[in-house]
């Protein structure tokens, strides 16, 4: 179902800048309008400035004016599926509105689909700020 999205994430993974960890991650966002936006992890020697592939892909979609997400694929070369970090889970929950698919895949062909609420139950949201 998400083959094209996973392939876009695999291609983005190869463009990662990861000279410190050598851990390449690719992501691709599919919007409800049918457009694909890739992202890859971009490391920095000041580690806190590193940007995860998921946030790069989401930022790419948002920078192009796309706000309605259908799915995101996240791909890493790991023996098991690699879920997003905590910061990315929060960003996925908020920017995706909680109503889209998060597709985890690896280079071995394993694939599993999650919802934002499954990966981040009891998420912090804008509702707490009012």
Automatic annotation (TrEMBL):
Keywords: Hydrolase, Metal-binding, Zinc. The keyword Zinc applies. Residues 1-127 form the CMP/dCMP-type deaminase domain. Zn(2+) binds at residues 52, 85, 88. Substrate binds at residues 41-47. The active site is at residue 54. It is an enzyme of class 3 (hydrolase). This is Cytidine deaminase. It comes from Candidatus Moduliflexus flocculans.
């Amino acid at each position: 179902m998400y083959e094209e999205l996973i392939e876009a994430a695999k291609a983005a993974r190869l463009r990662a800048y990861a000279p410190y960890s050598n851990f390449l991650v690719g992501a691709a966002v599919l919007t409800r309008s049918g457009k694909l936006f890739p992202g890859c992890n971009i490391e920095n020697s000041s580690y806190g400035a590193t940007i995860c592939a998921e946030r790069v892909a989401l930022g790419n979609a948002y920078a192009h004016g796309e706000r309605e997400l259908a799915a995101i694929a996240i791909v890493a070369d790991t023996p098991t599926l690699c879920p997003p970090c905590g910061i990315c889970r929060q960003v996925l929950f908020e920017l995706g509105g909680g109503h889209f698919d998060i597709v985890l895949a690896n280079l071995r062909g394993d694939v599993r689909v999650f919802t934002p609420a499954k990966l981040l139950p009891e998420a912090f949201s804008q509702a707490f700020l009012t």
